[in-house]
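> call design_seq(struct)
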């Protein structure tokens, strides 16, 4: 196996339906901007509340992707 280097980014996904969808939103958005996302680690889950009701689910997700100087943003 070759030596590799990974870069790590943190993004926050949001959904009005569920934590699962918030995570999926974060991964999908990051995958559009960077190539080779291969690990996602959910760091924190929280909700946005208005008038005593949950209005959105949020997930802070840390993702790693293979660092390759040839990849362009």
């Amino acid at each position: 196996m070759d030596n590799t280097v990974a870069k790590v980014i943190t993004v926050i996904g949001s959904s009005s339906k569920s934590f699962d969808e918030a995570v999926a939103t974060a991964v999908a958005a990051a995958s559009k901007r960077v190539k080779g996302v291969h690990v996602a680690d959910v760091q924190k889950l929280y909700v946005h509340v208005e008038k005593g009701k949950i209005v959105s689910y949020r997930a802070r997700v840390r993702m790693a992707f293979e660092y390759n100087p040839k990849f362009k943003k």
